[in-house]
Predict the 3D structure of the following.
Amino acid sequence: DVHWSYDGSTDGQDKWVDLCTGYSDCGGQSQSPINISGAIPDLTLPGLDFNYSSTTTEIENNGHTIEFVCEAGSELTIGTKTYQLLQFHYHAKSEHQVDGSYHSLEVHFVHKASDTDYAVVGVFFEPGEENELFTEFLAHFPTEKGTYTDTTEINLAGLLPENKSFYHYSGSLTTPPCSEVVNWYVLKNEISASATQIAQFEGILKNNYRDIRNLNGRTIYSRDE
């Protein structure tokens, strides 16, 4: 694998596009993340129907993020299309901005359809009440690089806000190869975690976020529940 970083002088994010030919999308016109502003309400957008089962996960600290690889069986249906949940991972601080402001953390739930289409759901964390489920996750976060199997069943639905109102736009993966194949759904409502929990996470991994990309004429839509 080609080595990349967020802030390195030779392999940092402004150099991704030059690291190998497979990363050419990193310089594309439909990149993520973006600053979400001026979203247009669209009542015709289908809602997000999450069908997440409690799952055991394989946890990987790959040096870029903490990634939870999920067993098959958790799905997201949007309209007539169903996506399988592959994995979810964390960024600190958030990658997306809303009206120019960052959040403390952003979780990305990465789903893939039977074609090459991806649906990634972004959920923001903000300091507030302690989050019991997040405590469970923190207990399993590997502090060193490597892959660890976790047999604890985790109720993933607890990482989603009850209200699933969202912003939607077409974009990309936020890490190399930055493929422009992602339907983004960024949830408007945040999940709370205590300041201590957020600091704990940042102690393991922080500043693993990509800078804001230009919108380049794309439209941002929104749907309220």
Summary: The chain has one domain: 13-35+46-223.
